[in-house]
Amino acid sequence: MDGFAIPQADNRFFKWNEVCGGCDCFLGDGDVAEGWVRQITFPGKFFIERMDYRFRCFVAKPYSGSVPFIELLCLDSVEYVNRETDGGEFAGGPGMNAVLNAVKSGELVFSPFVPITGVRVVIFERFYRHMITERFRDAALDVDALAQFRGGIPVNSAVRLVFSQIRQSMELGINSEMYYESKILELLFFTASKRPNPGAIHKKPRVLPHEDMIAVNSAKSIIDERLRDSPKISELASLTGTSAAKLQNDFQAAFGCTLHSYVQSVRMRTALQKIENTTEPIYIIADNVGCKNPSRFSELFKQAFGVTPSEYRKIGMRVLPQSDMGAEKHG
Questions:
Q1: Most distant CA atoms of the chain, gap in Å
Q2: pLDDT (tens digit, 9 = 90+) per residue, 239-257?
Q3: What is the pTM of this model?
Q4: Could you report how far apart the first and last alpha carbons of the chain are, in Å?
């Protein structure tokens, strides 16, 4: 495992551009892909990748081989079909996912002009086996249980918060090995030890007929565009040319969540990004994402991320002092 090569951004669509804030930055070629991928690497331990790009056309990306021990993903926006060689075909969307040493092959088919944003963490076996296991023998981390959740980790506000802190830290140019190692430990703890039913296997979303996928994707786009005045399910069904009952069933089959939970999820993710990236008052952000009651918004935000919007803004402003963090360079 020591000789494992760090996966680079696909050179068919991305070209290395520069080292920025301790990260290797890759830019889309402009013809097929637009946007960027940033990676920060600590050899023999782990690497972290932040992505924000979209394809200009339908793209099929083949994959094969084994994951180097643990891969954790938190995708804010994505839409794809995963065609596994031995596992069938299923649709994928935003959310969290974990893969443990999974030997697999197939291809991912991405739709054009759909943003692909999120954070990917890959943790090498040596780091876990020789460091974490020896140092925290009483932690009872059931990492093997992660293998049961290839269809997605149950939503966990603590995990989302850690991923958000990682994302923001990369934006700030923080490249401290000690800092990111602490975040990796948090991710392992929350994903491997906080399971109400570790033996449960989540079913993969099924692939719908083409015309039904068009309807649910249209509904998804309308929700994304109309957060402030989200249409009722009956209106959404009318706009997409189907019935309310069928739309609800098809949406859950395609994306693994109900229409209501998707609306709430998009509202909270959008609010989180606005709190991180703007100085807008919290009540304005709440109104812009369709939450007219600031108290209710604060309650929903805390349910999603473990802290209130005001607390999160304070946390975000002081994740770690940049002057202190910038002094340590990774090898």
A1: 58
A2: 999 999 999 998 888 877 7
A3: 0.59
A4: 18
